[in-house]
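User: Okay, second chain of the day. Same drill as before: sequence in, structure tokens out.
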Amino acid sequence: MNVKDMPLMEHIVELRKRLVIIAIFLSPLWWLVFFLAKPVIVYLQNTDEAATLTLNAFKLTDPLYVFMQFAFVIALVLTCPVILYQLWAFVSPGL
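Assistant: Same drill. Structure tokens below.
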């Protein structure tokens, strides 16, 4: 069977496989960066540009939320090569 002639369900299974691979790379990296994020955030807070800014926490969970968002963005950037490869591996057989 030609790859272009795959039924819809096989395409969905292939997409699921690719998304699982991305999650396997992203999740541990997210937690690793989460525990290493404090020095980077402290460094960014101590720059000259940040000296005039005030940090406000409107909820009890806001500082944790900032750490989680920061860690997710950094992990996403570091996982970008895997994401792009998996995207290409999913799309290229159909081209």
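Residues 4 and 94 are 5 Å apart (CA to CA).

User: Thanks, on to the next one.
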